[in-house]
Amino acid sequence: MKILILHRVPYFKIEYHRGISHDRHDVTYFGTDQALATLPPDLRCDRVSRPGLRPVFEEAQKWLARKPREFDRIISASEYELLDAALLREHLGVPGAPPAQVVLARDKVLMKQAVEDAGLRVPRFLPLPQFLADEGLAPWHGRTVLKPHRGASSEDVLVFDTTALATTAIREGRTGIARLDAGKDRETFQVEEFVSGPIRHFDGLVQGGEVLVLSASEYINTCLQYSQGRPLGSFQIGFSDETRAWVARALAAVRIEDGSFHLEAIVQDGELVFLEVGNRVGGADVVTAVELATGVHLPSYELRTLLGEPVAALLPEPPVDPRRYGWFAFPGHHLSGREYRGLDGGAVFRDAPLVVAWNELPVGAPLPDHITYQTGETILTGVVAGDTLEAVRDWMTSLFGSLSVRTRPVAPTASEQVPA
Q: Full-prediction pTM beyond 0.85?
């Protein structure tokens, strides 16, 4: 089989060799030089560099116009390039989910409408142009969330105390979101009521519409708080047959039929309220935590489903040891322009028995200029394990309340230094 991978996610996060035999298949990785540099040097494959200045679909079209090739599958593991892969499949006549199906699981307005139509509760919401046109007529009046239709990592997400304050900030260009304040791209944003309660994420694998693997976790802090500079983590919890059925209904509503999924919901008054879902693995160390708990490496089995291989009979038995796992991440993007100098209060946690992985930036490393959960980019990531969810939750909560980060401004390079 000839396979084209739109390569953006660092190789170590997916480990493509675990799901695709590179000896049996002819695999081509299409990505920027930075992305291609993450490939193992001895991996049997073709590496095709792209400039990274235009959408990957456009750059792939241009490349294939110069050097026509045929593929049996076109795959992307990145949320940002799922639609590009679908467009390229459609352009080349390659099997796989079409663009309309992919958009349904990417656009937050379309997905919420589909889930609501399926009879599940969602936050009340409106596309931003409709919200502004119907000023004062929104079906809620309290806390209001402004977010992009297709954003990720809580970028450009704001919460206002009331619908009126949201309206005023947007109309007067005082949101702090440059494109909105310039009066642009309003059609790419939506607003929704703020629903309070614990936030959970559900991760797993689906093939042919059947949920084969499911893991449930609850966040400590939120992705929005992480974008604002606070640490984030989650710990695994149990789930009922009713919850499993709810997840299956939500996935069916947005036509996520094959591959991995990462679904988020709020628990309010004992009821799950759908937030959003992606046809991809979760970020941070979700993949590691799920594999430790279930024995299933989600990216590997996702790749097999995308190649059309039945996987249900191949799934490993879960580990005999029924431990709970969690992951954590400390952000650094809010300290951009500074370098990492170390952690205060970390010694007692670093060597704790619960710690499975502790990945800390080396002292002197520059802090990122963008939101990232990536090991090696942000200040600290890790995985913990405990006999109970309470043990994992309480340890992580203590960690978040104890650590403080030391930084200093990045020293100028020789070319940047100005003679006295």
A: yes
